[in-house]
Write a sequence for this structure.
C-alpha cells in the first residue's frame, strides 16, 4: 500500500508551517465530531476557533445535521466563544430551501425529517405533509389504505427522521413512482452517525439509497458531499478561489469528498467518525485529506509555534 500523503500540521517544517497558514483565508468547519460530540464540546475547540479568527481567518460552518435549530447552534457556538448569524451556518434544511426557491418550486412536499427540519421548510412558505407516525395494524390492506393516497405531491424530501418507518418509505416510493416529475431530494447522506467512541447509529443515507434503487433515479443531494450543494456554498460565501478555503471535517465520505468536489484544501480531524487507521486505509482519492490533526485542539500548539516564528 502506498504511503498516505496527508500530513499532521504539527509535523510540518517551519517553512511548511508558514506556507500552510498563508494558503487559506476562509475556514469551513463541520460541527459534530469537530467542535463537539452529541454530549460535550471537544477540548480546545473554542480556543482554536478564536485563534483562527484572531489570525485573520474567516470562519464559517457547514454541517449535515439539521436536527438542531439555529438557536441551538448559536448557543453552542457562544459557549465556545464564537457568535454567529444564521448565514454563517449551512445545513441541509437551509440548502434545500435555497434550492427550491431558486427552482421556483410550487406544490406539496412529502417530508421525512425532524420537527426542526420541517419547521425550516414551513417557515420558508412551503406546504408539507408527513407521517404516518403512529403504529399501524399489521395488515397489508389497512397499511396500503393508509399510505396509498391521492395527495398531489411534487417533491419527496428525506433527511434524518428518528421516527422513520416502513409505511413512510412506502408512501415516499408511491409518490415518486406516480410521477417522474416528482423530485427526490436528500439532505444528510450519512450512512453512519458517530455519537461517541464505540457508538455509531444508522444514518439516513441508507433510506435515500433504498428509495433511489426502488424508483430507479438518483436523489438531488443537498447535504455533503452533494454536487448541487457545491454551487450554493461557493456562491454564498464568495469563494472565487476555492483553493484558499480550508475545509475541516471528521468524515471521509461526507467532508473530505465534498472538499475535493469543491477544490478546497482538506483537513481531517480524528476526534469524530474517522480513525487514523481508516484514513490510511482509504482507497478513494477523493476522500483523502491533505492534512490531519488529532482534534481541533492541535491548533493551540500550532499557533504557539506560528507566534514563535
Amino acid at each position: 500500500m502506498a504511503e498516505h500523503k496527508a500530513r499532521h500540521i504539527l509535523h510540518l517544517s517551519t517553512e511548511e508551517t508558514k506556507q500552510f497558514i498563508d494558503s487559506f483565508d476562509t475556514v469551513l468547519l463541520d460541527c459534530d465530531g469537530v467542535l463537539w460530540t452529541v454530549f460535550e464540546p471537544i477540548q480546545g475547540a473554542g480556543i482554536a476557533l478564536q485563534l483562527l479568527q484572531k489570525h485573520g481567518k474567516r470562519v464559517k460552518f457547514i454541517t449535515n445535521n439539521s436536527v438542531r435549530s439555529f438557536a441551538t447552534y448559536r448557543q453552542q457556538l457562544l459557549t465556545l466563544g464564537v457568535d454567529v448569524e444564521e448565514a454563517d451556518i449551512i445545513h441541509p434544511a437551509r440548502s434545500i430551501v435555497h434550492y427550491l426557491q431558486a427552482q421556483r418550486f410550487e406544490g406539496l412536499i412529502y417530508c421525512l425529517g425532524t420537527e426542526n427540519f420541517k419547521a425550516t421548510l414551513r417557515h420558508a412558505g412551503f406546504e408539507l405533509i408527513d407521517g404516518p407516525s403512529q403504529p399501524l395494524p399489521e395488515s397489508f390492506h389497512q397499511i396500503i389504505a393508509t399510505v396509498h393516497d391521492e395527495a398531489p405531491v411534487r417533491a419527496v424530501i428525506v433527511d434524518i427522521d428518528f421516527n422513520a418507518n416502513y409505511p413512510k418509505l412506502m408512501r415516499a416510493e408511491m409518490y415518486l413512482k406516480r410521477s417522474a416529475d416528482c423530485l427526490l431530494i436528500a439532505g444528510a447522506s450519512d450512512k453512519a452517525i458517530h455519537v461517541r467512541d464505540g457508538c455509531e447509529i444508522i444514518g439516513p443515507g441508507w433510506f435515500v439509497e433504498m428509495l433511489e434503487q426502488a424508483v430507479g433515479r438518483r436523489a438531488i443531494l443537498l447535504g455533503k458531499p452533494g454536487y448541487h450543494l457545491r454551487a450554493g456554498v461557493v456562491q454564498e460565501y464568495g469563494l472565487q478561489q476555492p483553493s484558499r478555503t480550508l475545509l475541516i471535517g471528521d468524515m471521509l465520505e461526507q467532508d473530505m469528498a465534498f472538499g475535493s468536489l469543491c477544490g478546497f484544501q482538506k483537513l481531517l480531524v480524528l476526534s469524530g467518525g474517522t480513525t487514523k487507521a481508516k484514513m490510511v486505509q482509504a482507497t478513494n482519492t477523493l476522500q483523502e485529506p491533505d492534512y490531519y490533526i488529532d482534534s481541533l485542539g492541535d491548533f493551540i500548539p500550532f499557533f504557539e509555534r506560528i507566534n514563535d516564528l
In short: The CA atoms of residues 269 and 275 lie 9 Å apart.
